[in-house]
């Protein structure tokens, strides 16, 4: 009994010493801040706040605040028609710059429009129509000062490819044209709806890398298809893939090529490429590549006319309808078999056109240091295509080559688009008969020289250096377009972009943290090699929100970090892990599955005699931890403001355990 009493007394003395030691350490600790818990929000207000931040992040109604009714009406008109706002400060100086820019881009757009309409399998006048009405509508509703509106190569090719899969453009020309107008109508509806519903963020799902690959592949496909006109081939494949096109070209080499056509195409293509080289070398000579296409058309047309080369097999345009856009409201399919097909084609073409226009608008806006409203741009682009579909136009959007010329020519406002439209109007009314002897080879040369700039190999190399997964998306889109079709390339681009998102969401990054010497900062030990791990503690950071899609992975990955660390400590014969600290700084949100995963992690750690500690959970996360009672489960004294506070608090306990 005496011996037992002595042992009990010794144990009590040791406990008293330990408690005293622990109290001594706790007294010496600096004040540790607790994680703040915000008061519970009203559910309706919280939902409204979330919806506002999602769809109205730019606070579009701010200018209307505290304004009288008449002023609100004026601001409303200016919001729909920005020209009413900037037009008040318009001056003769700005008009001079806009006239020069408008005339310059008109000289570029007229020959391009005739060629691009061929890509869409439409008569030449429809390309000119699309550079008359849509730019006028955009000038009144668009918010970009520099973007030049009209048909573009990629959208023309995409539209032509998708339409001819449904209707033969030669045998059923009228039905084909009607379906083109229907697709344009629904493209406009899609674009305007995205703007009205403020869903513009959807176009951001098509990544920059995917766009670079898609544009490059489309450029090569467009250039290859121009070999028909460039070489004077009569029987040419209707397929767009490189294998079919090259087979058609090589197969007709002995009897299908026309040497006069090849000569005309080669001479003027060289001239166009040389003029672009001059423009790049000297920015002041930007007008040289801008007017080179029109000069090429004039010279080649005159040459064919005086030599009557059309009698020797040189294919010419022959006829362009004279006059302004006729109404096409009655030609749009609003019911029947082709409505759904027109809708599907329109949505695809509208999204691609929208992506290109927004990218161009943002690029030039950043160069001139002004802001464009993405949602207003969508409404403007959508409205102009809806109106265009009713005035014999096909899908129009922002053209990068014309916008670049517009910018370098010194455009000040969207009035340059109005000037361009007026020139196109005069062309339709007076000049179209003069294009009768224009050789198809020169149109092919103009398109080839225009689309070469879409092959951005420097951007592809940069993507490879920055992100290999992005490069896969880029190359997937590129090879999909080149070897299969435009729509397959687009599908591959979208699929790979979504795959990247899913991969990042379902497999978030995690990192083991260590202490930077001489500081209280804790960082990734793989990034900072001098960072040291705290004995008896494992610090893990989760670099993502914890949702149902990744919660199980996060839990298992943390446990694997713990297992790996314990194995290393066992080999080195070092004290075991007592605390697992999860740095939740990057965790912006957590759902019920995520909390359930933390509960499972807590139970697993208890079985290993390891204490779970949380550091710096954000407002949303801490609110949900309290609402789910997880904060009480793990212990509120185990939730800290920083990793340093957690270590500071846990260290004395570890020292006591070692006594």
TrEMBL record:
Topological type in the membrane: Multi-pass membrane protein
Keyword entries, A-Z: Membrane, Transmembrane, Transmembrane helix, Transport
Any one GO BP annotation for this protein: transmembrane transport
Molecular function, one GO term: transmembrane transporter activity
GO cellular component: plasma membrane
SUPFAM superfamilies per the UniProt record, alphabetical: SpoIIaa-like (SSF52091)
Transmembrane intervals: 147-164, 176-197, 209-227, 257-274, 286-306, 343-361, 414-435, 441-464, 471-498
Domain STAS: 527-650
The organism's place on the tree of life at top rank: Eukaryota
Subcellular localization: Membrane
InterPro entries with a match to the protein in the record: S04_transporter_CS, SLC26A/SulP_dom, SLC26A/SulP_fam, STAS_dom, STAS_dom_sf
Major subcellular location class: membrane
Pfam family for this entry, one: Sulfate_transp
KW Magnesium (keyword) present: no
PANTHER family for this protein: SULFATE TRANSPORTER
Name of the protein this chain belongs to: Sulfate transporter 1.3-like
Native organism: Nelumbo nucifera (Sacred lotus)
Gene for this chain: LOC104600090
